[in-house]
Amino acid sequence: MAAPDRKRRHKAQYVQGPAVKRGRAGAPRQLEPGMQGILITCNMNERKCVGEAYSLLGEYGEQLYGPEKFSDQDDKLSGSEEEEDDVEAALKKEINQIRTSTEQKLRRFQSVESGANNVVFIRTLGIEPEKLVHHILKDMHTTKKKKTRVILRMLPISGTCKAFLEDMKKYTETFFEPWFKAPNKGTFQIVYKARNNSHMSREEVIKELAGIVGSLNPENKVDLNNPEYTIVVEIIKNVCCLSVVKDYVLFRKYNLQEVVKTNKDEGQQNLSSVTEEESSKEIKSAEDSNELKSGDRSQGILLAQTVAWHVQRHKYPEAMGQKRFPELPSPSRYLTYSI
């Protein structure tokens, strides 16, 4: 008996659409709207940067929040349903055991793909990014102890949204309230940086955000020299990362390499720059002097040749013809020079 005909499925039916990269427990592995964390720039070594970030954040995280407590993601099935028989109960129990053994524990700090080169994003859970990063920078600024080699800047990110102007305006109207809504007020500045994004205008974003801050309280004023608050806007692809930080100028734009420098180091750096300028000026003056001296020597040689020519011409007029020896300038113009 011939087997029944079966229609072959089209290849397109097996193809799945693009999905967001996720971990074993469903946790996102790349930067996306709705996250909180810490944005870190590094010096051409992202893997080492992640290691330094885990070490530094773990050290200060325990100081502020105590030892880390792990919490498994709640993906377990509800036990309210009644099992129809023992086979179904045993099957569900086995499935739960497999999920429990394979699911990822949610860590306090977890690195995700940022979407830009030399940029690392550490997703945080159960902490305040501004408080933690400010604590780190304050301690490093006080002790002047360098604790990282490849990490450059460490910026807390309190909120993320889609990197479109209308989405940003809607999101920041409530995001800015804890700092700028009356009766709260303060001086502020806005720093903007976009990576792998070309559809946003820096001037337009700053203008709109400054207008929102002013609408929350008219007493909020712009101060570009030493503001009380700094609004950090970091755009990576289609994600806008936002935060409001303090002591941005004092902590050298939240640069971990610059914040540990002492006044002596700064003085030596300024002195070296001044010394380089002075040495370059001395070299230039020496070159000019050498050129002048060489010019004097050439003029002296020319004067000697001219005087010798005139002497020869007067002593031996018959041997000094115009064809063989063309007329040279008169030596009277060189009388001011010494041979």
From TrEMBL:
SMART domains: THUMP (SM00981)
Record's compositionally biased regions (Basic residues): 1-12
Keywords from the UniProt entry: RNA-binding
Superkingdom of the organism of origin: Eukaryota
Domain THUMP: 139-246
Coiled coil: none
Function: Functions as a tRNA-binding adapter to mediate NAT10-dependent tRNA acetylation modifying cytidine to N4-acetylcytidine (ac4C).
Name of the molecule in the record: THUMP domain-containing protein 1
Naturally occurring in which organism (per UniProt): Crocodylus porosus
